[in-house]
Design goal:
Number of strands: 57
Number of helices: 42
Distance between the termini: 114 Å
Largest sheet: 7 strands, antiparallel
Helix content: 25-40%
Radius of gyration: 48 Å
Length: 1527
């Protein structure tokens, strides 16, 4: 209802000297405030907050009469009375100075540049000049004065310390006949008790007295802590008729306050509680309504005794202060709205000893928008003595007396508040829009601005990585709380003279606002953002809105008092016309209207005469003509003590006997009479006349009432009556519709009242969305300096919300009304937070019953479980509830819900894999690890088959986290609740809590990384097609890069630590089996996601599966599958394109003309797509094989550091020199291109413009570039650069120019950019793994000729077997035939690469011959081994011959040591076996050398050297060169 906003304002007072502030109080209109000090009285104006007059007593008066203690206003504000410490009453007259216009008159400067141009700079409010003078003085000879209260316009009542209550007139005389003596007043517990006993204890007197004419008596507090209520048969309070009624249960009362509107009496106690009583009409006694207590959550300590209580002017809230400091606010019936003990005062503030907010006195301002407080600030020494744990209990005299320490100062502060429109204009309960009103502004938080972020997770998967997962999981919070309010300030032209806002209203659509201040009205449009005011200011000042304000269609309806006509009226102002009385429809009424409300085209008003009038409204035209006719008048004066006790009146279609179809003209009246809700049903009889039935009491302690306008979808919720009862919680009067054709339950009531509790204060209800909206107070501290005006925290508003569906369902199930609960739940299944509501329902029942210390005779959990089973989200609800509950409560939950194993299997059967994964946490804690592993393995296999990669990765981590030593150990977390009388072992801490929790959380996914050495890419031009949370920026990836530089070291570390276990091997087997299945079915997309999410080392695995799963048996089927898998369109056949396949110049001029047309525009910004096949070079848009930066970098490297030719390979040196020359040429061309202002990109493979015959140089260039590119990118070419270079030099095949390849690549439509990135990524992986068949297939799909070139060159690697090269050649032939016959779109591209078939044939022949050589070498090695083993006989020679022989042997041995062994050559100088290394250590004899040379002649070595280039290198490295020379 009331919420503080902003900083407390510190008002600057005149110099008080040594005096302190004692009390602040306001007059009845709350426009003037009296501030009392020890020796002075000041009168202040509320707005602007300025002093008007100050009267300071003389020193003689202080010495003779005493210091000031209390002050009281006369109701007409003409007089004040001051109570002194010596028992005197000083009466002051307050008069207006007639010859003075006003105070604080502002005049402009005569200088034009200093004049105020804005109207906001002028104070238009006339501040009256007042004169304060002492008029009378009275001496009270009956002891000290303890309290004073004004009861009428003529009298005040004064309580003294001699147990008397004296009555003084405002002229200073005493009315002795009506004085009261406590010792003569009978006291009892209620008015029905015949025996009443007066107070007989000595020295018992009243310390606090409060009067309320609506309650009919006085609330008093005695000095001994007792509290009572004094009443009489008449308001004259004849001493012989006064009777006292004890407030039972209170022995430590400290203060009292009375709520007039709700007829409540509140007593503050020394234990910091407030007890609220109401008058029991049946017995006349005081019955406890509710308690206002701070819970341990609000404040864990005790703030001390209650020192003062104040109700708001409208009676909708109460503020209490404590002796140790702090204030708190409760609603009418005990809902806590605000507590300063929970504010943010900083870390070094002890609220128990040094509370920054000590309040000595307080008073509410106009309309309750300000709270004036006298703040006490103690010194440090005093603060240490405030809270003494050994101190005696506080007494009422100590609370209200002047026994405080003198070491404190006082100041006057003002705290601003915003309040709900329901406090003054209860008809706004029809609207579902949340807004608050301040003194000069509106705070709007409409239901349309409610942000619902409960969305599907797949909506956020648009920006994931290449094969990555969802990087930003969707939040599952149903509603987003917010502090953002639309603040609409009232224009100064209106608020300057009509401050503050009294009434406010919003229309049904939330697009228009209307306000009413002291006089007149204004309305605001949300669409135009403009206010509309009266053009004629005199018309604005002619009426005062007094009975309410609302919107009906496009009209502002108000009940007002006309000052000119001196009568009450109903006015209708059209929204679209000017605010003028000539456009208004004015209806005169007989009595002042206090309340009004509407229902469709019916208006209901309640007047001060106690009559309810029902009007029919009909719009005639848009010019403001409205027909208003009175339908019925109902006299309800007998239902209330006074018309002011009627809190709200509502016209509704609800009836006690509810039905699905209700007839017309069946409206009923719902009346809130001082918190008691009455239903008055109207009926039509005797020819259409209306009659009313007897009123029905629906509920008590009602603060607010909401009546929906009805709906079709959720009839149970939209045809219910919603009540808020403060501390008693929320109540809903729900209709119970019988089943169609069910006549067995005719005895059942048609409606039922269901209570439930809320954690927020409701301000608006969204009936269709099952949400309650509210607001709460929060604070922000800006400074900790206690001397600063901003030392108190800044208060802000925050919107709150709560789902209430589960509360209603629980109450219905508890009352065995499960069918009605099912009907309500079924109508709400479309709500996004419906599963959350079921989860809350189960969680609350489980917590309440499982933690109960006593046996539950009728447990509700089985019924709730049975109810939730009716909905598809049953399995999810149970496991989500279990996850948010302590493990100790799981056995009780699953005893009713079923075994976790069965629920897991049910999830698997229904395909709810995510829910089944959540059950693994339950199984892991309730079962042995072997059981959880078994079910996790089953779920992993299913998740892999259904491509649930996120889930699969979580399951792999879950399986790896299971301790092998804990497989068979039983879980001791099966804790039975204490109510089952079983022992409860301690709950162990799960070591895998972090790993287990991953099953539900969305972890940021990364793709599988290639482990090859990749070239550096300039990061400036790199455009990564990933989202902000993608791979490149992931901290997980960066950490992985540091810890795992390459796959070999990572696999070795993992193998040395984890892979030795059987569990690791079993998991790897599962993953490899699934990968093999995906590759066999040509599902490369799934395999990419599989490897990325599960961190599967794809390159290493593909290297092992090169000859098994990575084989392609049907190339055409594989290519078609790639088209379907990546949504890659087939190329469309177009005009023929001739491609030169020979080195000779073209003979046909047509071909020459075609090639002349293939020019390149250097200024074209379209990037080339015939580039490097590796995914490394992809930078958002393809820019050829090299980017300009890479080209220049390569050129500079070659120029500055030329390659040194090897002495043994002259051909390679020649090729590298020619390559360097071409690079330099292109570098110069590029520099000239840049200097001419062209685009910063160049193609290295542009043919010479002179003729097409320049293919010779181009093919050498391609060969050299391809050599260097692949050697720098792929680890396959690490040691074979020389071999490839020489091989390429021997193969003179041609590649078309870049323009031709560009045209071939761009011919026809291509797939999405994302698909192309994925394909090039997979191409790189297959190339690294030497899976050339898949590399060829992807290259053909991308129509990348250079990728085909690299693939064919890779076939020359010794790692490629003869069979793999045969399959590669056969596949290329099959694809060529297929494109010629079926898919003609590929034909131009296949023609461009058809010479690769002959290259593959050459490579295949070379490998076959090489294999034959290796076979002969193995035979030679075996022969040499046998010869070296045979012993050599020693001959008897002379010493000279022997020395000569030894020298020859030494020479032979030296020759052997200088050159490598022949067996080392057979293994390509990098794969030495043990027998070969053994042969190196032995020196062969001359006989062995001769035998070896004989074998070489038989094999015709000279012919083989010309066949294969590698054999040339082999002969150069052959052993025993000396022996060869001898031959």
């Amino acid at each position: 209802m009331y919420f503080p906003i902003g900083w407390p304002k510190v008002l600057k007072l005149p110099d008080l000297g040594d005096t302190r502030l004692k009390q602040v109080t306001s007059n009845r209109d709350r426009i003037l405030f009296a501030i009392l000090t020890d020796d002075a009285l000041a009168i202040w104006f509320c707005k602007p907050c300025v002093p008007i007059v100050v009267h300071r007593r003389s020193r003689d008066s202080i010495e003779n009469l005493g210091t000031n203690l209390l002050v009281e206003w006369k109701p007409d504000s003409s007089k004040l009375v001051i109570v002194t410490s010596e028992g005197h009453l000083l009466f002051y007259s307050l008069n207006v100075i007639s010859d003075q216009k006003g105070l604080y008159v502002q005049t402009d400067s005569p200088h034009a540049n200093l004049r105020r141009d804005s109207a906001e700079l002028f104070i238009k409010e006339i501040i009256p000049p007042l004169q304060l003078s002492l008029s009378e003085e009275a001496m009270v000879w009956d002891g000290k004065i303890t309290s004073i209260v004004c009861i009428t316009m003529t009298e005040v009542m004064v309580a003294t310390s001699n147990s008397h209550v004296l009555r003084y007139r405002w002229d200073g005389t005493q009315n002795r006949d009506y004085n009261l003596d406590l010792r003569r007043i009978p006291f009892c517990i209620n008015q029905q008790v015949s025996k009443a006993v007066p107070i007989v204890e000595e020295n018992t007197y009243i310390i606090t007295i409060e009067y309320s004419p609506l309650v009919g008596g006085f609330a008093i507090v005695l000095n001994d802590g007792r509290a009572a209520f004094l009443t009489a048969s008449s308001l004259r309070f004849d001493p012989n008729q006064v009777q006292g009624i004890w407030a039972q249960g209170i022995e430590d009362a400290t203060c009292a306050s009375v709520n007039h509107k709700y007829r409540l009496i509140t007593f503050g106690r020394a234990n910091s509680e407030c007890v609220v009583y109401h008058i029991d009409e049946s017995t006349g006694g005081l019955a406890v309504s509710h308690h206002c207590v701070l819970s341990s959550k609000d404040y864990p300590g005790c703030p001390g005794a209650v020192t003062e209580l104040k109700w708001t002017p409208d009676g909708c809230a109460m503020v209490a202060t404590w002796k140790n400091g702090g204030i708190a606010m409760w609603s009418t019936f005990g809902a806590l709205l605000m507590c300063s003990l929970g504010w943010d005062y900083g870390l070094h503030v002890d609220l128990q000893r040094d509370n920054p907010l000590h309040v000595a006195s307080m008073e509410w301002g106009t309309e309750g928008y300000q709270l004036w407080m006298i703040r006490k600030q103690f010194t440090k020494d005093t603060c240490d003595n405030i809270q003494d744990p050994n101190a005696n209990p506080v007494t009422p005299e100590e609370v209200n007396g002047d026994n405080d320490d003198d070491n404190f100062t006082t100041s006057l502060i003002q705290l601003d508040f915003a309040k709900s429109a329901l406090t003054i204009n209860p008809c706004m309960s029809h609207q579902s829009h949340l807004y608050l009103q301040g003194e000069d502004k509106l705070f709007i938080n409409s239901a349309d601005t409610l942000i619902k972020i409960f969305s599907d997770r797949t909506a956020n998967n648009k920006d994931e990585g290449v094969f990555g997962g969802d990087a930003s999981p969707a939040s599952t919070k149903p509603l987003a709380e917010g502090r953002q309010w639309l603040v609409i300030p009232v224009p100064s032209t209106y608020s300057a003279t009509n401050w503050p806002i009294r009434y406010s209203a919003i229309d049904h659509d939330g697009q228009n606002m209307a306000i009413a201040g002291r006089t007149g009205i204004a309305h605001y449009s949300m669409l135009t953002r403009r206010w509309k005011l009266f053009g004629n200011e005199s018309q604005e000042k002619d009426f005062i809105v007094s009975g309410g304000l609302l919107w009906w269609r496009d009209y502002v309806v108000l009940a007002c008092y006309s000052i000119i006509d001196n009568g009450d009226e109903l006015r209708f102002y059209p929204k679209d016309c000017k605010l003028d009385n000539k456009f208004a429809r004015i209806v005169r009424v007989a009595s002042p209207i206090l309340l009004m409300n509407s229902l469709q085209d019916t208006l209901v008003t309640f007047g001060s005469d106690g009559q309810v009038a029902i009007w029919n409204i009909k719009q005639i035209d848009a010019a403001g003509n409205v027909d208003v006719s009175k339908l019925q008048v109902v006299d309800i004066s007998a239902l209330c003590v006074h018309p002011a006790c009627i809190v709200s009146i509502t016209l509704t279609t609800l009836r006690a006997e509810s039905g699905r179809g209700q007839n017309q003209n069946s409206e009923s009246l719902v009346l809130n009479v001082s918190g008691r809700l009455l239903l008055v049903q109207r009926e039509t009889r005797n020819g259409g006349k209306f009659t009313c039935s007897m009123p029905t009491v629906l509920a008590g302690c009602v603060e607010n009432v909401w009546v929906p306008e009805g709906g079709k979808d959720k009839v149970h919720l939209t045809e219910a009556l919603w009540l808020f009862c403060g501390a008693h919680g929320m109540r809903v009067w729900l209709p119970l519709f019988p089943r169609d054709g069910d006549k067995s339950h005719t005895f059942m009531s048609k409606r039922i009242m269901l209570p439930f509790h809320l954690r927020i204060y409701p301000l608006a209800i969204l009936f269709e969305d099952a949400i309650i909206l509210g607001a709460e107070n929060d604070t922000v501290l800006y400074t900790t300096d206690s001397n600063s005006p901003f030392s108190l925290p800044f208060s802000v508003l925050q919107r709150t919300s709560q789902v209430y569906l589960h509360q209603i369902l629980r109450q219905l199930i508890r009352r065995n009304l499960g069918y009605h609960a099912w009907e309500i739940a079924r109508s709400c299944t479309s709500l996004p937070y419906f599963p959350h509501s079921l989860e809350l329902l189960l969680h609350e029942v489980l917590e309440e019953e499982a933690t109960s210390k006593e046996p539950i005779p009728d447990a509700q959990l089985p019924s709730v479980i049975e109810f939730i089973m009716e909905f598809p989200v049953y399995l999810q609800t149970v496991v989500q509830c279990a996850r948010k509950t302590e493990i100790a409560l799981w056995p009780y939950l699953f005893s009713a819900a079923g075994k976790p194993k069965d629920l897991f299997q049910e999830c698997m059967a229904k395909g709810h894999l995510d829910t089944a994964a959540t059950y693994l946490i339950i199984l892991q804690n309730l079962e042995t690890s072997s059981v959880s592993r078994q079910y996790a393995t089953l779920l992993l296999d299913t998740a892999l088959n259904q491509s649930k990669w996120e889930l699969a990765k979580d399951l792999v981590r879950f399986l790896r986290a299971i301790d092998p030593n804990d497989v068979e150990s039983p879980r001791n977390s099966m804790i039975i609740p204490n109510k089952l009388n079983l022992s409860q072992p301690a709950t162990p801490v799960s070591p895998n809590a972090e790993d287990i929790s991953l099953v539900l959380g969305n972890v940021q996914r990364v793709r599988s990384y290639s482990t090859s050495v990749t070239p550096k890419i300039n990061e400036k031009n790199q455009i990564t097609p990933l989202n902000a949370n993608s791979i490149a920026e992931s901290p997980l990836v960066q950490r992985r890069k540091k810890s795992m530089p390459n796959s070999s070291s990572r696999s070795e570390n993992r193998d040395s630590t984890n892979s030795n276990t059987a569990e690791e091997f079993f998991i790897d087997v599962i993953l490899q089996r699934h990968a093999r299945r995906l590759l066999a079915h040509h599902k490369l997309t799934d395999m990419g996601y599989f490897a990325a999410h599960l961190d599967f080392h794809l390159v290493a695995w593909l290297g092992k599966e090169r000859e098994r799963a990575a084989r392609i048996d049907d190339f055409v089927c594989g290519l078609k599958q790639l088209h379907d898998d990546f949504s890659w369109p087939y190329p469309v056949p177009h005009g023929s394109l001739s491609i030169p396949l020979s080195r000779s110049p073209p003979e046909s001029p047509n071909i020459d003309e075609k090639f002349k047309q293939l020019h390149m525009d250097c200024n074209n910004h379209t990037s080339s797509r015939v580039g490097d096949s590796g995914y490394i070079s992809y930078q958002g848009l393809y820019t050829g094989l090299y980017t300009p930066q890479n080209t220049l970098e390569l050129s500079s490297q070659v120029t500055e550091t030329p390659s040194e030719p090897e002495p043994d390979s002259p051909n390679t040196a020649i090729e590298r020199n020619s390559f360097n020359g071409m690079i330099r040429t292109h570098s110069k061309n590029y520099e000239s291109l840049r200097s001419n202002g062209g685009e910063k990109r160049v193609f290295l493979y542009d043919p010479p413009r002179s003729s097409i015959g320049g293919y010779r140089m181009m093919e050498t260039q391609i060969r050299a570039n391809a050599d260097d590119t692949m050697s720098s990118i792929s680890s396959v070419w690490g040691e074979d650069r020389e071999y490839i270079g020489t091989s390429c030099s021997s193969e003179n095949w041609e590649v078309p120019s870049t323009q031709v390849l560009e045209q071939l690549s761009n011919a026809g439509s291509k797939g999405s950019q994302r698909s192309e990135v994925q394909l090039r990524y997979l191409l790189q992986l297959f190339m690294e793994a030497s899976c050339l068949e898949w590399s060829l297939l992807i290259s053909v799909l991308l129509r990348d000729a250079l990728a085909v070139l690299r693939t064919v060159n890779a076939a020359k690697s010794p790692d490629q077997s003869i069979e793999s090269v045969k399959r590669l050649k056969q596949g290329l032939q099959i694809l060529h035939y297929w494109t010629d016959t079926q898919c003609l779109g590929y034909k131009p591209f296949m023609l461009a690469i058809q010479n690769q078939i002959s290259v593959l044939s050459t490579i295949l022949a070379t490998k076959i011959q090489h294999e034959q050589i290796l076979e002969h070498q193995r035979v030679i090695s075996a022969t040499l081994s046998k010869v070296s083993v045979a012993p050599i006989p020693r001959s008897r020679k002379s010493s000279a011959n022997q020395s000569e022989t030894n020298s020859k042997d030494r020479l032979s041995v030296t020759s052997v040591k200088e050159e490598p062994d022949m067996s080392q050559l057979s293994a390509n100088s990098h794969d030495e076996s043990l027998p070969q290394r053994e042969a190196l250590r032995r020196a062969p004899s001359p006989r062995a050398i001769a035998l070896f040379l004989k074998k070489l002649r038989i094999l015709k070595i000279n012919h083989l050297l010309n066949v294969h280039t590698e054999l040339t290198t082999t002969i150069k490295l052959i052993t025993w060169p000396g022996a060869l020379m001898n031959c």
